[in-house]
Specification:
There is one protein chain. By secondary structure, the protein is mainly β. It has one domain (about 1-115). The chain has 2 helices and 10 strands; from the N terminus they run E-E-E-E-E-E-E-H-E-E-E-H. The strands form 2 sheets. Strands 6-9-8-7-3-4-5-10 form an 8-stranded antiparallel beta sheet. Strands 1-2 form a two-stranded antiparallel ribbon. Strand 3 (about 15-20) and strand 4 form a beta hairpin. It is globular, with a radius of gyration of 15 Å. It starts with a strand and ends in a 20-residue tail after the last helix.
Length: about 140
């Protein structure tokens, strides 16, 4: 599968969850079961437009429609370098249409364990966690 010119590594990537989102990056994690770990992360650098749920399954990536292509241009004044469109199961009756516009997208592949906190501590954990450490891959801030 290819997304924005990047070929995804082979694997089961049907569960998706946004693990971090701020002005610098949108980071959806992917895996076959996100309970204990994830093994793929997309990093949308400098997201300018994000229209997707925080958790979804079975995304089907597709070319953006003409209206979706024009949407970020109307609000930003120019076309974004990266525009990703997909349909996904977000738990509703029908799939939801999603759109992400960003400066660029990078993919990180490798096992990232989930928090081992007790369930009663999960409620106090912030919704947007800090960037996970990828073995052998320095963070941009390092």
């Amino acid at each position: 599968m290819e997304i924005a010119g990047h070929r995804l590594p082979e694997g089961s990537w049907w569960d998706r969850e946004v693990t971090a989102w701020d002005a610098g990056a949108l980071r959806p994690a992917a895996g076959s079961d996100l309970t204990y770990h994830h093994a793929l992360e997309a990093v949308f650098v400098a997201p300018a437009l994000v229209s997707c749920p925080l958790a979804f399954q079975d995304p089907v990536f597709r070319a953006p429609t003409p209206d979706e292509t024009a949407r970020p241009s109307r609000s930003l004044g120019e076309a974004p370098p990266v525009l990703v469109a997909f349909e996904a199961d977000a738990g509703g009756i029908e799939p939801v249409s999603c759109l992400v516009a960003a400066e660029r997208v990078e993919f990180r592949h490798g096992l990232v364990p989930r928090s081992a906190k007790a369930p009663d501590q999960e409620a106090s954990r912030p919704a947007f966690r800090s960037t996970p450490r990828w073995p052998g891959v320095p963070l941009a801030t390092d």
